[in-house]
Amino acid sequence: MIATIKSYALDGLKGYPVDVEVDTQKGIASFDIVGLPSGAVKESRNRVRSAIRNSFFDFTAKRTTVNMAPADVKKEGSSFDFPIAVGFLASTEQISSDRLSEFVMLGELSLDGSLRKINGVLPILISALQAGYRKFIVPAENAVEAAYVEEATVYAVKSLSDAAAFLGNMLEIAPVEHKIYSADAARNKYGSDLKYVKGQAVAKRALEIAVAGGHNLIMCGTAGAGKTMLAKCIPTIMPEMSFEEAVETTKIHSVAGILDPAEGMIKTRPFRTPHHTASLCSLIGGGNKSTAGEVSLAHNGVLFLDEMPEYNKRTLETLRQPLEDGVVTVTRVARSIEYPARFMLVASMNPCPCGNYGSTDPNKQCTCTYNERKRYVGKISGPLLDRIDLFVTVDGVEYDELRSSSEEESSAEVRKRVAAARAIQRKRFSADGIHTNAEMNNAHMEKYCKLDPGSEKLLAAAYRKFGLSARGVTRILKVARTVADLQGRESIAASDIAEAIQYKAKERLLDD
Amino acid sequence: MIEAYKKAVIWLQSEAGFSSGVINRILSLPESAVIRIPDDPAGSFAVVKSAAGEKAAEKISVAAKNSDAFKKTLARMEIKGIKVVVRGESDYPEALSEIDNPPPILYTVGDKSLLKSRSVAVVGSRNPTIQGEKTAYAFSEVLAKCSLTIVSGLARGIDAAAHRAALDAGGKTIAVLGTGVDRVYPAENRALYEEIAKKGLLVSEYPPGTEAKAYHFPERNRIVSGLSDAVLVSEAREKSGALITADYAIKQGKELFIVPSAVNSECGRGSNKLLKELQGAMVLSPDDVIEALGLYRAPDSDATDMDLDVNEEKIMNRLQLGNAHFEELIAVTGLKVSELNALLTGMEIKGLVYRAENNCYGVY
Question: What's the topology of domain A2-167?
Answer without folding.
Answer: Ribosomal Protein S5; domain 2 (3.30.230)
